[in-house]
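User: Is it possible to get a 3D structure for a protein together with its bound compound? The compound here is 3-hydroxypyruvic acid. I've pasted both below.
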Amino acid sequence: MNRIRQVWAEGRSAVVGWLHVPSAFSAEIMARAGYDGLVIDIQHGAASFHEAHEMLRAIELGGAEPLARVTANDPGEIMKLLDYGCYGVICPMIETAEEAAAFASSIHYPPQGRRSYGPRRPAQRYGAGYVAMASETIVSFAMIETELGLVNLDRILAVEGYDGVFIGPADLALALGHPPKPDPDAPVVVEAIRHIRERAHAMGKKVGLFCADGAYAKARIAEGFDMVSIAPDSTLLVAGAKASLDAARG
Ligand code: 3PY
Ligand code: MG
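Assistant: Yes, that's possible. Here is the predicted structure of the complex:
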């Protein structure tokens, strides 16, 4: 079973890491740290499509569920990632019900969707019965992070075929006239995040949030978020490097 679905089935919230570094080696050691899943950020991270494919393998080997935040709502990109062992897709900038429906249809084989057949790696992991179970092996999130996305929130949430919405707080803050930053404290942004969480749950969808600080993420889990991401690998690398330098220099 998909590890994120397993966590949900146990009544817990998933904690996922976020990867900017385009390396299968660092993806594997991050996976071994114990995250439920790791998200390869193809939109804003450094990984090319080819590097992302190698990282998907490394994450699975390391014991975490491999996910990706794609560059756009592009069926070709999404379907190829699914063929190569991506079991969770986060799609940026979803703004209308039509975009949400197009996203959802990339995730599922007919008749539910229009995913094309060619599951090169999933067929190895799941065997001959893969097609019948494919939808259950994947989690899917439409990002809400724009003004239009907020305006159309209920219409987007009413679309079937994807698991939930994932909030990008930096873009959301920009859309609401505030500087982009994770773990926001501007009341209007905090209120928008609360509103999205409540509407998502009211309409039977999961809700995830991009976070930076672990303690901030823990507080959001207590509020009911179903999935939180925590500090990206690039942030952890710099923080560790600075702490080590500071210790050496005093
Ligand atoms: C945002 O905060 O806008 C995101 O997309 C998270 O990376
Ligand atoms: Mg964003």
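The first helix runs from residue 3 to 9. DSSP finds 13 helices and eight strands in the chain.
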